[in-house]
Design a protein that fits this description.
The complex is a heterodimer.
Chain A (H helix, E strand, L loop, with lengths): L5 H8 L11 H4 L12 H4 L10 H22 L4 H4 L2 H31 L3 H26 L10 H4 L6 H15 L3 H30 L3 H17 L3 H10 L3 H30 L9 H19 L8 H7 L3 H11 L14 H10 L7 H13 L11 E2 L22 E5 L2 E5 L2 H9 L1 H4 L5 H6 L8 H7 L35
Antiparallel strand pairs in A: 2-3
Helix pairs in contact in A: 4-11, 6-7, 6-9, 6-10, 7-11, 9-13, 10-11, 10-12, 10-13, 10-14, 12-13, 13-16, 16-18
Chain B lengths: L2 E8 L6 E6 L4 H9 L17 E4 L15 H4 L6 E5 L4
Parallel strand pairs in B: 1-4
Antiparallel strand pairs in B: 1-2, 3-4
The chains are: A mainly alpha, B alpha+beta.
InterPro entries (chain B): TmoB-like_sf, Toluene_mOase_B
Protein name (chain B): Toluene monooxygenase system protein B
Pfam families (chain B): TmoB
């Protein structure tokens, strides 16, 4: 029997809007879930998928992708790659799986919201496939690390992190809940499909895939590439949504949604991606710096997409471009100093050669972030490695839930941006996080950072041991330690003595 | 006297830190509390030998320092209020 070409039936098949008779339109599509912007349904019916696929085609392609990823894994299973891998590289995997695997299930629910509540039949169709994509991503990224739990229990955080109260998991959940879980279908699509997936997922997926291949981990590289091919498809849901918003006089609202989500996810991804790229991957295996990736994939490509859609660069674009060279350096030092709070083992890995590379890629690194490492390295070289571990707590941002840090040294740019709301002082890492809070304080005001929980009785008494236990360190697995057991510090023995003595100690 | 946590911003440090103080602490004692977890761990004293001062953090970094003997209570510092610990010419 002859089959019709897809183009002959596609538009009819997904023309699934109808006129409800038993409920009114707002009951079927509640505005706060579907479209708070009041755009006529006739406009939503113009939504045209940039990438068309039938269910039959989808299943066939996805089966091939899964078969490819699992067969590479099976083929390499007998190698001892992971047993012999660089411990810092394994930390990259632990961080990735802990942060991402269960987030994919959250993304599945976001797509489910679009599937159910969008007024655009084409969007519902694409989101259905997106929902199935994310389900696959969750399953595959739980299955792969599960095989490694017997090698290292820290891999169990792939399953556990999102259910824990670890500060890094809280930071991830706070951002993802805001962007993916708590908005209407239209805003979710702008924030997730466009700002997050179009704007920033490339850096995570393409960058990590390249680094994994350079490290010889073809299992992970293949897995990530497989996932990214799905992301590249369903991320396109956001583009027609934005076109409809702009055409119908909702550019300002669309712009605001982009601006909020792009910043929120950038702050998380810079840690997830920037630190491994610039610190953990061995020098000779590095593809390029985080800043170079961000400049190409975000600074140029995403900026062009924004402008093509009639939107503007986020108002904080200059702050963002500066942050690309600052935030992850601050957090590389902070996470290493507070490494006992982590579910992975970070490496310091800032020997003389690495510092030269960092200085070349980030001029001024030694005089700002390097000064921080100087003190810790000098302590280790003086026989006091215990003093390379931080004591006390950093202040935490009431928006991104990340330590409030910035350049140290004589430029001294570290500061909390504070505001008072209903009698409570809130602290933010940046004017952008503060701006997001000010837009909608009721959305954010009751959430407590891990530091707040130390003082409101939730962690009581707030001893270091109790804080670590609260965060799951020593419960789910042991907390982090230096991945190389400080071996990288020995490189300083081969060069001149420390540049300056520890002063004021 | 009662415990209080402030956010300490030590000159040249890359982090802002939560510092446990007491309402009876003088500003000199606040300085010591802020230096304790930072200097010698990840930060250096901004000017070894110099006595540091405390001021409220402002956008223009030009608030007057609190008198060294003033207490936290008298300065009316609040929970998680941010203060600078810095080198002053005064």
């Amino acid at each position: 029997m002859a089959l019709l070409e897809r183009s002959a039936w596609y538009d009819i098949a997904r023309d699934t809007n109808w006129t409800p008779k038993y409920v009114d339109a707002d009951e079927l599509f509640p505005p706060d879930q579907s479209d708070p912007y009041g755009i006529p349904v006739s406009e939503w019916e113009k939504f045209d998928e940039p990438y068309k696929v039938s269910y039959r085609e989808y299943v066939s392609v996805q089966r091939e992708k899964d078969a490819g990823a699992y067969s590479v894994k099976a083929a390499l299973a007998r190698s001892s790659y992971y047993e012999d891998a660089d411990p810092a590289y394994l930390s990259m995997l632990k961080l990735h799986y802990g942060a991402i695997a269960l987030s994919e299930y959250a993304a599945c629910q976001s797509d489910a919201r679009m599937t159910r509540f969008s007024k655009a039949p084409g969007m519902r169709n694409m989101a259905t496939f997106g929902m199935l994509d994310e389900l696959r991503h969750g399953q595959i990224q739980l299955y792969f690390p599960h095989q490694l739990v017997s090698l290292d229990r820290q891999f169990d955080w792939a399953h556990q992190a999102h259910h824990s109260k670890n500060w890094a998991a809280i930071a991830g959940r706070h951002a993802l809940d805001d962007v993916m879980m708590t908005r209407d279908a239209v805003t979710t699509s702008i924030m997730l499909n466009f700002a997050f997936e179009t704007g920033l997922t490339n850096i995570q997926m393409i960058g990590l895939s390249a680094d994994a291949a350079n490290m010889g981990d073809y299992t992970f590289s293949n897995l990530i590439t497989s996932i990214q091919s799905d992301e590249a498809r369903h991320a396109q849901i956001g583009t027609p949504v934005l076109e409809i918003m702009v055409k119908n006089g909702r550019k300002a609202e669309a712009q605001q949604a982009v601006d909020i989500a792009f910043w929120r996810i950038h702050r998380i991804f810079a840690i997830l991606t920037g630190i491994p790229m610039d610190y953990w991957i061995p020098l000779e295996k590095r593809d390029r710096s985080f800043k170079e990736y961000m400049t190409e994939f975000v600074g140029e490509q995403f900026e062009r997409q924004l402008l093509d859609l009639g939107l503007e660069r986020p108002w904080y674009w200059d702050i963002f471009l500066e942050d690309v060279g600052v935030h992850h350096h601050c957090q590389a030092a902070a996470t290493w100093a507070w490494r006992n709070t982590l579910w992975w083992n970070p490496t310091g890995n800032v020997g003389p050669r690495e510092r030269a590379w960092l200085e070349e890629k980030y001029p001024g690194w030694n005089d700002t972030f390097g000064m921080y490492w100087d003190v810790m390295i000098e302590n280790i070289r003086a026989g006091h490695p215990e003093k390379s571990e931080a004591i006390g707590m950093p202040a935490m941002c009431n928006m991104c839930q990340i330590p409030i840090s910035n350049k140290g040294g004589t430029v001294w740019e570290a500061r909390a941006h504070q505001l008072e709301h209903e009698g409570r002082l809130y602290s933010f890492c940046s004017t952008v996080c503060k701006w997001i809070f000010e837009l909608e304080p009721d959305r954010y005001k009751t959430f407590n950072t891990i530091a707040d929980r130390m003082y409101n009785g939730e962690i009581s008494p707030n001893t270091p041991e109790n804080i670590l236990q609260y965060m799951g360190a020593g419960v789910i697995s042991q907390g982090g330690r230096d991945a190389h057991d400080l071996a990288w510090v020995k490189a300083y023995d081969e060069v001149e003595a420390p540049r300056t003595p520890i002063a004021g100690t | 006297m009662s415990p209080l946590a402030v956010i300490g911003r030590l000159e040249n440090d890359a982090h802002t830190r939560i510092i446990d103080v007491d309402t009876d602490f003088t500003m000199d004692e606040v300085v010591d509390a802020c230096l304790a977890p930072a200097v010698g761990y990840q930060a250096r004293h901004p000017k070894p030998g110099a006595k540091l001062r405390v001021r409220l953090t402002t956008d223009s970094d030009d608030a007057e320092p609190f008198p060294r003997s003033m207490t936290v209570a008298d300065a009316k510092l609040r929970h998680f209020q941010q203060i600078d610990i810095y080198v002053s010419d005064e």
